[in-house]
Every structure is written in C-alpha cells, then in structure tokens.
Amino acid sequence: MSDQDEEIILKDLDDTELVAQMMDDLYDGMIPEVTEGTQILLDRGWDANMVLNDALVEGMRIVGVDFRDGILFVPEVLQSANAMKGGMNLLRPILAASENNSSVGKYVIGTVKGDIHDIGKNLVGMMLEGAGFEVIDLGINTPVEEYLAAIDEHEPNILGMSALLTTTMPYMGVVIEELDKRGILKELPVMVGGAPLNQEFADAINAHTYGRDAAMSSELAKAIMGKNR
Amino acid sequence: MLGQVSQEAELKCLPAGYHNHPEKIVPGLKAILDECAARYNTILIGYGDCGTGGGLDRLLKSYPNATRLPGAHCYAFYSGLNNFDHMMEAELGTFFLTDYLVRHFETLIIKGMGIDRYPNLIDTYFEHYKKLTYLAQTEDEDLQVQAQEAAHKLGLSYNYHFTGYGELEAAITSFGLEVKNQESMSHV
C-alpha cells in the first residue's frame, strides 16, 4: 500500500466493496483483516457458504492463478493460505452445523510414510474444503495401513497422497499397488501431488489423477465428482 | 579439492539458490552440459537428486560421460549415505545445515523462504521438524555458534555432527584419477 492510501475501515464498506477488499487482503496475506471481513459478512446475515465461495475461495483462486503464472511465490501463497485459514476458522463450525451442509464428496488425504512435509497437502485440503468436500486429513508420515483403515472407516470418494521428497514419492506406488491387490483401486480414484512429481510419474504408478497445485487439485477433484463449474 | 586432484578439471557452478527451486536445476544443468559435454570425456555432477524427482537422472541419460553423486540429497555425501539414512530413521524431523548453509543461512533460509517478510511462516515450514543437525565440514567455532543461533531461531533443538567432506572427497578423488588416466591414455 502506498503512503497516500487512507486506512480502510472494513465495516464502513458495502458488501460488494467489502468482498473485493477481502480478496485484496487475502492476496496480500493479511490474516486479521480477512478474519474481520468474514465476521462482518456473517454479522450482516451472509450465508457461510456464500462467504466461503464469494470471498475466500474466489480470492484464493486468484492467488493460485498468479502462483501458476509466476507472479506470486511460495511464501506469499502460504501467507494467503494462512489468511484464508483465519476466515475458515470462523466458517467451519457454522458450515458443519448447517442444515444445508451438503458435502460434494468425501476426500481422504495424507502425506506418505517417511515424509513430514505437509504444506502442499494442507493447501489442497483447504481448497477441497472450500470446494465443499468433507476432508479427512491423515496428517504426515502415513503408512499404507492407515490409508487402508481410513478408506474402510470413511468410505471416501477420492484418496489423495502427497510427497515432497524424491525418496518418499515411490511410496505412493506402494499404496496404489496395495489398493489394487485388494480390489479397491477400481472403485476409488487416487490423486497424487507434490513438488517433485509430474504426470509421467503419476502415470507410472497408476494414479488416477495428478494435481499440479492446490487450486488445480481442487478443480480435478470436482471433475472426478462431476461437479465442475 | 578439485584443484588438488586434477589441474585439467574445470569447475562450473549453478546458483546455490536453485536448491530452493529444484525445478531450475535440470534446465540450468542442461545448459552447462550442452556447453561442456563435447569438450570433456568425464563430467562429475555435484548434485544428488536434490528434489528434481528423478529429473536429473533422466537428463543425464542423454549425457553418457556425465555422472552425478549417488543418493537423494547432496548434503548426505558429507555424512555418508548410510549414516544419513540412520540419522533420518532416528528422527524424521531433522533439518540439516552444512558449513555453506550456516554461512548463508540468512540469505538461503530466512530470506529465501520468505521468513524475513513473514516470520509466522517459521511455524508453517518447520511445524513437524524437531531438531537441526549441523553437518560440519570444518571445525569452526564461529559457524557452530551461528548454527546454534539458527536452531534457536527456527525453534529446533541443536545437534552438532562433524563429518569433514565425507564421501564427497572420495568421489572427487576418484573423478580426478579417472581424468588423469584419460590424460595419460591420450598421451600414449
């Protein structure tokens, strides 16, 4: 912001201006401002789903596009994600309690065994949540047994795996092979992602879908569920 | 080290910052190989896979006179690949620094990862890390103090492990011998 900019009082803005300002603040990674904007819209009677989609998800979509185009870099995207998280923390309990809470689908996600790097996985989880998925996050260092137990317990529509290390990405193949052996793979689409991955690797391990980044993964997951906009 | 084993070897470097952007390593290296491969019989690449997801190995298939150091991470050569695996098994959440990374901690880690602009990202990046292990190539008290300060800054426990140049030294010596053999063969 330039020195000439006056301080913006969020509550003085009308709805349209506020949503636009929230998207700007999300882009700039301003956590308190995005949280405050979310609360203001809720106080004005906005439906939580509308706040989520019109302000947060749409703002994060723009961040994703600019990341893909090399305008934004990882630290900025993470800061934006943290800002979105601020708003999500207010919306999540309302969405969970809502009678209109119709999930797009169930998505089990986890970072594979031997890997503790979950930044990408968390971004994907947040974008999926924003897209209306019920996300069951298995966390980091996830062995095949935990994936299997979660599939058994939650009966997800999609399984997602992430890895950041070249040494751990082959474990995705181990999990997929096990799913295949048990006859689960033909019923359950498996999405994979992570910085060192590419389409060629995803094809080699027989993954259903490769998600290049968080925004793309969310779009691809919706496509799998037949819910693409 | 290279100068000691061969006067004929030429050293080419890629920017160290590429380790924060592994996607730049393969194209950067390809440009150097395209320039040099025809001039040399033997080329040693001082990289592990270094986050390229096998991309480096795929590239090197097109340059049969070029080989890279074994393993996934270049800093593992200092400790030895087996020792490195043991360290990772003992604590998965270990963040490694070398002499170089300690010296350039502010530039490569703090500024390179945007922590100078967004200090809260320390929690995002290092949430699952437990300790920082300094793999020291030289016995330098100043660097040890700096490494301890780095651990403190990242909220990690500190561990010091003197490695010297480890398997990197052996790899370069062996490379130098190969170069010398080829020189003597070309003089026969």
Kindly describe this structure.
The complex is a heterodimer of chains A (229) and B (188). Chain A is α/β, with parallel strands linked by helices. Chain A folds into two domains: 10-97, Methionine synthase domain (Methyltransferase, Methionine Synthase (B12-binding Domains), Chain A, domain 1); 105-224, 3-Layer(aba) Sandwich (Rossmann fold), CATH 3.40.50.280. Chain A has helices spanning 15-27, 31-43, 48-68, 74-97, 119-130, 144-154, 170-181, 199-204, 214-224; strands at 105-111, 133-137, 158-162, 190-193, 209-210. In chain A, helix 2 runs parallel beside helix 4. The model of chain B has no long low-confidence stretch (mean pLDDT 89). Chain B folds into two domains: 2-73 and 167-187; 81-162, no CATH class. In chain B, the strands form two sheets. Chain B has a three-stranded parallel β-sheet with strand order 3-4-5. A two-stranded parallel sheet of chain B has the order 1-2. Chain B is an alpha/beta fold and 188 residues long. Chain B is globular and about 55 Å long. Classes of the chains: A alpha/beta (229), B alpha/beta (188).
Layout of strands and helices, then pairs:
The complex is a heterodimer of chains A (229) and B (188).
Chain A: H1 15-27, H2 31-43, H3 48-68, H4 74-97, E1 105-111, H5 119-130, E2 133-137, H6 144-154, E3 158-162, H7 170-181, E4 190-193, H8 199-204, E5 209-210, H9 214-224
Parallel strand pairs in A: 1-2, 1-3, 3-4, 4-5
Chain B: H1 2-5, H2 25-36, E1 43-45, H3 55-60, E2 66-68, H4 76-79, H5 81-90, E3 94-98, H6 99-103, H7 105-111, H8 121-126, E4 131-136, H9 141-154, E5 157-162, H10 166-187
Parallel strand pairs in B: 1-2, 3-4, 4-5
Q: Helical proportion of chain A?
A: 40-55%
Shape, principal axes of CA atoms of chain A: globular
Question: What's the helix-strand series of chain B?
Answer: HHEHEHHEHHHEHEH
Pair of chains with the largest interface and how many residues each contributes: A-B, 25 and 23 residues
Mean pLDDT of chain A: 92
Largest sheet of chain A: 5 strands, parallel
Q: Strand arrangement, largest sheet of chain B?
A: 3-4-5
Q: Please provide the count of β strands of chain A.
A: 5
Q: Low-confidence parts of chain B lasting 5 or more residues at pLDDT below 50? A: none
What is the CATH C-level name of the largest domain in chain A?
Alpha Beta
Q: What percent strand of chain B?
A: 5-15%
Helix count of chain A equals: 9
CATH H-level superfamily title of the largest domain in chain A = Cobalamin-binding domain
**Rg of chain B:** 18 Å
